[in-house]
From TrEMBL:
Keyword vocabulary terms for this entry: ATP-binding, Kinase, Nucleotide-binding, Transferase
Gene Ontology molecular-function annotations: ATP binding; galactokinase activity
Residue span, GHMP kinase N-terminal domain: 2-64
Organism this protein belongs to: Popillia japonica
PANTHER family: GALACTOKINASE-RELATED, MEVALONATE KINASE/GALACTOKINASE
Pfam families on file: GHMP_kinases_C, GHMP_kinases_N
GO CC, one annotated term: cytosol
Name the UniProt record assigns to this protein: GHMP kinases C terminal
Family assignment from sequence similarity: Belongs to the GHMP kinase family. GalK subfamily.
Stretches assigned to the GHMP kinase C-terminal domain: 227-299
GO BP term, example: galactose metabolic process
Membrane-crossing residue ranges in chain numbering: none
């Protein structure tokens, strides 16, 4: 029997939770001892068989999460660091009521392909073996430069506005068939325009924001509420970038984030986007006021019972584990 309470198509990793739990249960049933890191990598690879070119963040946190602290996750190889969040604030998740099945559209994979093409064009311009570069993170490793330098390189090499498919073929000096093999996915071969500069700028500026978030959490005991304000500002900047550069938000998400910012330190969409949930950094004393405001202005007077399924506070907890039920 399978049971879950994570809403689907909400940006809360319901599919990854199911896959991760199923993999752990199967390994346990067959008495296989597998490290959490290997299980996370296996689950990430398995989910790509449905057609979405996802990373491994959801599966990693599903297995590597620990109670009481957030995690900074890095890849190649998979590893994570504890990030202790400052006291005095709570993360509250709120559903926009807009849903997207990312496996049923090309939007998600299109962003992956745009980032790949951005990395490959920059790599070619820099004289690198561009065919073997599939991710912007691999580009950074190959160039051996910091994020600030990468952002400058993106602005220098990639022009504003979309690239046509013909322009990409010309820059990379490949045929349409070769591009399909080296860069595209089965459900993105029909796409004729790619916004490479905006997508790359979002990825690298978002990475900078993550670094600043981690550093601010380290300094939180000394800076108190100032840290919470900084973290909230970083979340606001993140959402603005997701909306304007990565273009994966939704009007209902934008409205939810706008309302949230009036009563919180900051808010942003979470998950793949195009619907789903927002997460807000809320002063602990303001949680009830924040939720009641959303009930009045966003959820149109939804009952308290139904509202509890749409808006809830959360805190870091442990990841997937085997639980032995007692009679």
């Amino acid at each position: 029997m399978v049971h879950g309470t994570v809403p689907p198509s909400a940006g809360l990793s319901s599919s990854s939770a199911l896959v991760s739990a199923a993999a752990l249960a199967t390994a346990h049933a067959h008495k296989h001892r597998i490290s959490k890191e290997k299980l996370a990598n296996l689950c990430a690879e398995c989910e790509r068989y449905i057609g979405t070119q996802g990373g491994g963040m959801d599966q990693a946190i599903a297995f590597l999460a620990t109670e009481g602290c957030a995690k900074a996750i890095d890849f190649s190889p998979l590893r994570c660091r504890d990030v202790v969040l400052p006291p005095g604030a709570v993360f509250v998740v709120a559903h926009s009521l807009a849903k997207l099945n990312k496996a049923a559209t090309a939007d998600y994979n299109c962003r992956v392909v745009e980032c790949r093409l951005a990395a490959q064009i920059i790599a070619k311009k820099k004289g690198l073996d561009w065919i073997n570069i599939k991710r912007l993170g691999e580009l950074q490793i190959a160039l051996n430069v910091d994020l600030g330098t990468l952002i400058t390189i993106v602005k220098e090499i990639l022009h504003e506005g979309p690239y046509s498919k013909d322009e990409v073929l010309k820059v990379l000096d490949v045929s349409a068939e070769e591009l399909t093999k080296t860069s595209l996915t089965p459900n993105t071969t029909h796409i004729q325009e790619f916004k490479l500069r905006d997508r790359a700028l979002h990825v690298f500026t978002e990475s900078l924001r993550v670094e600043k978030f981690i550093e601010e959490c380290k300094n939180a005991p000394a800076s108190g509420d100032t840290s919470l304000q900084v973290l909230g500002r970083l979340m606001n900047e993140s959402h603005d970038s997701l909306r304007d550069l990565y273009e994966c938000s939704h009007p209902r998400l934008d409205r939810l984030v706008e309302l949230s910012r009036e009563l919180t330190f900051g808010a942003r969409l979470t998950g793949a986007g195009w619907g789903g949930c927002a997460v807000a950094l809320v002063p602990r004393a303001n949680i009830d006021k924040y939720i009641s405001t959303l009930q009045e202005k966003f959820y149109d007077g939804t009952s308290a019972e139904d509202l509890s399924k749409l808006v809830f506070s959360t805190s870091p907890n442990s990841g997937a584990c085997i639980y032995y039920a007692t009679n």
